[in-house]
TrEMBL record:
Keyword Oxidoreductase: yes
Entry's family note: Belongs to the complex I 24 kDa subunit family.
Alphabetic keyword roster: 2Fe-2S, Iron, Iron-sulfur, Metal-binding, Oxidoreductase
Protein's recorded name: NADH-quinone oxidoreductase subunit NuoE
InterPro entries in the cross-refs: NuoE-like, NuoE_dom, NuoE_N, Thioredoxin-like_sf
Species annotation: Chitinophaga oryzae
PROSITE patterns, sorted: COMPLEX1_24K
Gene Ontology molecular function, alphabetical: oxidoreductase activity
Cofactor: [2Fe-2S] cluster
EC class: oxidoreductase
Protein encoded by which gene: nuoE
This protein's record includes keyword Transcription regulation: no
EC number: 1.6.5.11
Annotated Gene3D superfamilies: Glutaredoxin, NADH-quinone oxidoreductase subunit E
Entry-linked CDD domains: TRX_Fd_NuoE
């Protein structure tokens, strides 16, 4: 069941679109912001609110790689694996993240602090290699930078 806050925020978005379906991605983002991921139950609730089928909402949710359909950690690490990052040290960063966090791509640390995901490009090729944690972009990284960066996130 959507919370009162989620319903209020989605209703707010509905006032800015010509048809309810147009608020689908915003509704998914609102639910994810509140819960960190979007469950099947939430998909069904959003579908009912937007007068869509659950399959339609799910197709939107699964199209976007940053809408999470399973539980994730409190912080999402997006490690850029573009050709620029690959050439500039991506492999060493990935290895160091694995050593520190003991997880691979698509996995979440045991304390639910971090989820590690690949990202095709973070748009900062001139400062490769790069990663994002939540909304924070880190560029020109070296493997020895990672522990200090990760300590900022609890």
């Amino acid at each position: 069941m959507l919370s009162a806050i989620e319903i209020e925020k989605i209703s707010h978005e509905l006032r800015h679109v010509p048809v309810k379906k147009a608020a689908c991605i915003e509704a998914l983002k609102i639910v994810q912001q509140e819960r960190r991921w979007v469950s099947d139950e939430s998909v069904a609730d959003i579908a009912a609110m937007l007068e869509m089928s659950a399959a339609e909402v799910d197709s939107v949710a699964t199209f976007y790689n940053l809408i999470f359909r399973k539980p994730v950690g409190r912080h999402i690490i997006l490690l850029c694996d573009s050709i620029s990052c690959y050439v500039m040290g991506y492999t060493a960063l990935r290895q160091r993240l694995h050593e520190i966090l003991l997880i691979g791509y698509g996995q979440t640390t045991a304390d639910e602090r971090f989820t590690l995901l690949p990202n095709a490009c973070l748009g900062t090729c001139d400062h490769a290699p790069a990663l994002m944690i939540d909304e924070d972009l880190y560029r020109d990284l070296q493997p020895e930078d990672l522990e200090q960066i990760l300590e900022k996130y609890h």
